[in-house]
Amino acid sequence: MKERIYFYHTNDLHSHFENWPRIRDYLAAQKKQHKEKGEDVFLFDIGDHTDRWHPLTEGSKGRENIHLLNELGYDAVTIGNNEGITFSYEDLNHLYDDAKFPVVLANLFNSNGHRPDWVYPTYITQTAKGTKIGIVAVTAEYPAFYDRLGWIVTPARDELKAQVRVLKKKVDVVVFLSHLGIREDEWVAEECPEIDVIMGGHTHHILERGKIHNKTLITAAGKYGMFVGEIAIDFDHTTHTVSNRSANLIDTAALPASLNEEEEIKGWMESGKQLLSSVEASLTEDLPHDPFDSLSPLGSVLGDALLEWCDADCALLTGGLLLDSLTKGPVTAYELHRILPHPINPCTVYLNGSELKEVLREAQKKEWPATVVKGLGFRGTILGAFIYKNISWDNHHFYIQNEKIDPDRLYSVATVDMFTFGYFFPQMQRAKKEYFMPEFLRDILKNKLKEMQA
Predict the structure, then answer these.
(1) How does DSSP classify residue 252?
(2) Residue 408 has pLDDT above 90, yes or no
(3) Burial (CB count within 10 angstroms: exposed 0-12, middle 13-18, buried 19+), residue 454
(4) Distance of alpha carbon 71 from alpha carbon 175, whole angstroms
(5) Given this model, what pLDDT does residue 430 score?
(6) Measured between alpha carbons, how far is 190 from 320 in angstroms, rounded to an integer?
(7) So what family is this one in (predicted)?
(8) Arithmetic mean of pLDDT, 345-352
(9) What is the phi/psi pair of residue 76, to 5°?
(10) Which residues, at least 6 apart from 446, have a Cβ–Cβ distance to it below 8 Å?
(11) Does 454 have pLDDT greater than 80?
């Protein structure tokens, strides 16, 4: 006898709620249809459902995302880096307090080495016919960031292999919720043949029909809710194996419009604004901003804030981080969020003089300001002009605090975490560094504005 089982999956929504009404309506209708036919259906989210760029997620500390998942009756979820390293320890520890589904995650621990009480390393559910489905999940490792927040994240590969070995003995079908990325998913398919289906995310890849890799089905549904994943498997009760598996992506834009969806989308935005309506500072004058002006007044204030927060010798950031100006009068939490929506942390990087000069020469490339930036936590569009604090130059000489850079001296440079990932400045990626977490740029700007009004 063969039993058909359906899985639906979402990943990397990143709080793009503009797609959620259609996703919700479609998944609710599919679940209803399958159940009316007596078919088993399971719904999973693969992480990064939250993203603090959206005011509703920011204002509710992610709790409203969980309510949306509850509403649809998800069967299990895992976390991505946007849940794991953009919320404070306390906020993540309570993010799923109201969840009506299990959070499956095998490679996250408290600093004492114990798993938090809101996660399951694996989870077992079953169909109406008694077929046992084992769910395992791990998330991408960012050990420096997790450590700063008070968590321990263990090697995903090792944890996964250990959990799968035990899980396979207890279940008929093994499903892996992977927030690791496509290359890691391919490795898993080769190294863990016990896994029947991998539902992936993190690298925002699109697999329209999935792909079979070493007899394992690998699937993924892109990003931002542009697609919903659908999987069908046949479990053979005679051979006790999955005899057939297929995958498909549903284009959200092609789905029927949800009733009053525009009003609902606007309502989520307005709810977020209300949650962020507290007045955080008051300005006695406008602070205009031009992302192409390295001496922009608001950019200069942010540069001072960064320099002071990191207590560094100098500071380096860009005008594109700020999305708008601030006007005279009260400044709300929403206004700060609107101009600095990025989940980007301050960072101190330690460079010797020779390395620092290389970075400064690189920063002066004429093409940088208009460069469009995607990823790295950046939620703006262009990089903008570089903003320098305690840094000057003439001809071919660079100065820190008006003193010529000493090639052998170690300098502390206040900057932003996106510059330490290797894309812009390899020197910063290799260097010793200290991340400040859970503070974002908007937090240090808020503190600076309060100081200015005192």
Answers:
(1) G
(2) yes
(3) exposed
(4) 23
(5) 95
(6) 42
(7) Belongs to the 5'-nucleotidase family.
(8) 98
(9) -170, 155
(10) 280, 281, 331, 333, 336
(11) no
